[in-house]
Amino acid sequence: MATRRIIISLPDADKLWLEGYSKVHQISVAEAIRQGIGELKKSQRQQTYQQLVERTRGVWKMGDGLEYQEKVRAEWG
Q1: Cα torsion 58, 62, 67, 72: sign
Q2: DSSP H helices in 1-77
Q3: What is the C-alpha to C-alpha distance for residues 38 and 32, in angstroms, rounded to an integer?
Q4: Most CB contacts within 10 A, which of 29, 57, 60, 76?
Q5: E strand or H helix at 60
Q6: Mean pLDDT of all residues in the chain?
Q7: 12-54 per-position pLDDT tens digit
Q8: Domains of the chain by residue range
Q9: How far apart are the two ends of the chain, measured CA to CA in Å?
Q10: Percent helix, percent strand, percent coil in the chain, to nearest 5
């Protein structure tokens, strides 16, 4: 995995918190930031999934979807 170095500016209080968090969890500040970004990405994927579910709710109009799925799969065998 290729990585790039970036420079960020943080308020003093956030920098102190980040350093404390990193020390308690015995990870580097950079690793704490990477983990935080990973959590943000995971949260975004979950929100996108939930939005998709909400937008497609009620689209299927052909009765019980599970019964239909089981019928189609039975035809495969």
Answers
A1: negative
A2: 12-24, 29-56, 65-76
A3: 10
A4: 29
A5: none
A6: 92
A7: 999 999 999 999 999 999 999 999 999 999 998 888 988 988 8
A8: 12-56
A9: 43
A10: 70, 0, 30
